[in-house]
Amino acid sequence: MIREPASPHHALMDAPELAMARVPDAGVAPFARERDARITAIVRAEHDFIWRLLRRLGIPAASVDDATQQVFCVAARRVDDIKPGSERSFLFGAAVRVASDRRRSREFRDPPVEQAGEEMDPAPNPEELAETRQRRVILQEILESMPMELRAVIILFELEQMTKLEVSELLGIPVGTAVSRLRRAREEFKACARRHTRGVTKARP
Q1: Inter-axis angle of helices 175-203 and 126-144, nearest 10
Q2: Burial, 179: exposed, middle or buried (Cβ in 10 Å; 0-12, 13-18, 19+)?
Q3: 152 and 59 in one domain?
Q4: Could you read off the pLDDT of 76-128 as tens digits, one per residue?
């Protein structure tokens, strides 16, 4: 099973910071306050999940905060369309679109730049930290080589440790389809890992 520590907790955005994303409705201040309160609640509940998801979908460390804000700006603009209880599903779809758009952008063609000290635990020694960072780089490279459809499933089940039912609900697919897709994702992950290993071996002098 693939496991990865949770991402560092970044400063959360409140509704006022996302206010520019919404089109204000004149004369309905109480409703606007209710929307702002809901946006803030969504951000606080789902910020870290979306941050980790975007990072694992291949957004470079230097850009993941901006991408996270972009996702929540989309949510702020469409908050009235998000049904209660479907917030995470909506954000997931928005995050996948943001990651896909950035993958096609010029910014995304450049090699990712890791932030110094990202997710570093002061307890391990330097060798252990270097090994941990290397494993994460390899994991990221393997994930990025997978089709988005399969990558999303393996991220949600293996890294986010969601159940098959939760994955199916989040993706809006039957449980049987989620199970089948997870099986394909695991096979693809293993194949990508083998290709990565062969590539590293050939690159060695």
Answers
A1: 120
A2: middle
A3: no
A4: 999 999 999 999 999 999 999 999 888 777 555 555 444 434 444 555 667 77
Give tens-digit pLDDT for 117-171: 444 455 566 777 777 778 888 888 888 889 988 999 999 999 999 999 999 999 9
C-alpha torsion angle, residues 48, 159, 104, 197 (rounded to 10): 140
Q: Which domain holds residue 157?
A: 124-205
Query: Which of 57, 84, 115 lies at the terminal end of a domain, its last residue?
Result: 115
Are 3 and 139 in contact by the 8 Å Cβ rule? The answer is: no
Residues 146 and 57: their CA atoms lie apart, in Å, by: 10
Q: Where do the H-state alpha helices sit in 57-174?
A: 64-77, 87-104, 106-109, 126-144, 148-154, 164-171
Same domain assignment for residues 138 and 180: yes
